[in-house]
């Protein structure tokens, strides 16, 4: 099962001069070695991108090679400049090239000429309000004399950068300089997403994960053009976000997790770091405070919220549905207003997720009455309410969004809520739940919604999945990762990859491109990239993983970063 790459005849570390070489020396050394290496112009096709682009027009005469002296020229706009810097930061480690970024105000060439013939032959990032590309779309033109990315917004440019990155050889993922022929296949890609909401969820409540781990998950989302990170911040086993007006939520409620570990929580500064890292990657953070159930940790901290006003024991098991805040006590609504108010203040994005799932002990009118009050609290904060589809029977509130996690594709109550105006995020448990096992022998994860191999994750259509829900009512897709059995970053990556790109493709790519055999082959090309970057992934047997000759084999990174086998991941 191991797909450890075979030794590469072409990609070896560039010889580095002794003693602290400067960027220019590094660049010269890398380029000199590159020109002595005989490789095909490109190792892959213009269409080898995940998620599949809308339109691909290859030009076999148009291949381009990144020169060591390339300059990245960008429209004079702060957000676009940040995207250009991001591109440079992605390309500098492996190439060793300096790749200076300059905006058109500072550059003597007008943007129209920046990608044209000339000594630079670089990359131009062009904001063009008149381009017919939509708010998130981009066009990538690759020609022998330069590369040009065009978009209406910096977000579109950011997605174009992710495509460009995937079109370079896999060695571009190396954290240290390698010798490679940095060629891009020629032609034009025109691309835009199918759905506006493309997300993943990380449960940081069952097990707590450090800020650094969350940032790395954000990196994985960004690669595949996902634009929402939903953080499940509270549950029976732990409360993970600081709330100044109710401090024991974290000091007491945050000190536990599944299995009895120490837990943890994010200070407001920690959380702001996550949000700003995500924002810089054009990702919106969606905080979830799960109510009225999944609240044992809050009740341990503040027994006054419990129906019997008695503190329950801390909970470190994995059962669900036993806890709830007292829906009959006004103090509960003060608590919720305080918590959601503080969370809203940390949230630049429009969404606040209020959970609503598995509140088995709050039923009927008591449940709907509770949800209706909480929905109004969210609206009064100027945010849009999101909740699991159990919210459906509560009265409609303008803009509200339900997150579908069912496994049958049928629920008349959800269909009726949608008829009244609710929009739906699709996270069907039997296709999109990344905590489901791949196969019976998967060492971690659940199987209550079935096994989910890569094909199962890929082969469904969010536009038609739930009976009575038309495609126009579908806001998008989200892949949730619950973490009852997930204890490390390697575990997270093992369950995320390679299924996250499958869900990302359902959210991004037009249905006309949907094709399992084609997806499988494109996905296979991602393996060497993850391996090179030191990212753990499941070597799913249904994917023909490339043992490409472009993986650098000698690197400065530790052996444990070399591709993991299934068992090594856990
Ligand atoms: C159901 S799906 C849950 C979670 C569990 C998950 C495990 C949903 C809204 N609730 O509380 O962690 O199953 O797969």
UniProtKB/TrEMBL annotation:
<dbReference type="InterPro" id="IPR015882">
    <property type="entry name" value="HEX_bac_N"/>
</dbReference>
<dbReference type="InterPro" id="IPR015883">
    <property type="entry name" value="Glyco_hydro_20_cat"/>
</dbReference>
<dbReference type="Pfam" id="PF02838">
    <property type="entry name" value="Glyco_hydro_20b"/>
</dbReference>
<feature type="domain" description="Beta-hexosaminidase bacterial type N-terminal">
    <location>
        <begin position="48"/>
        <end position="192"/>
    </location>
</feature>
<dbReference type="Pfam" id="PF00728">
    <property type="entry name" value="Glyco_hydro_20"/>
</dbReference>
<dbReference type="InterPro" id="IPR017853">
    <property type="entry name" value="GH"/>
</dbReference>
<dbReference type="InterPro" id="IPR025705">
    <property type="entry name" value="Beta_hexosaminidase_sua/sub"/>
</dbReference>
<protein>
    <recommendedName>
        <fullName>beta-N-acetylhexosaminidase</fullName>
        <ecNumber>3.2.1.52</ecNumber>
    </recommendedName>
</protein>
<feature type="region of interest" description="Disordered">
    <location>
        <begin position="548"/>
        <end position="570"/>
    </location>
</feature>
<comment type="similarity">
    <text>Belongs to the glycosyl hydrolase 20 family.</text>
</comment>
<feature type="domain" description="Glycoside hydrolase family 20 catalytic">
    <location>
        <begin position="195"/>
        <end position="361"/>
    </location>
</feature>
<feature type="compositionally biased region" description="Low complexity">
    <location>
        <begin position="552"/>
        <end position="570"/>
    </location>
</feature>
<keyword id="KW-0378">Hydrolase</keyword>
<feature type="domain" description="Glycoside hydrolase family 20 catalytic">
    <location>
        <begin position="366"/>
        <end position="510"/>
    </location>
</feature>
<keyword id="KW-0326">Glycosidase</keyword>
<dbReference type="InterPro" id="IPR029018">
    <property type="entry name" value="Hex-like_dom2"/>
</dbReference>
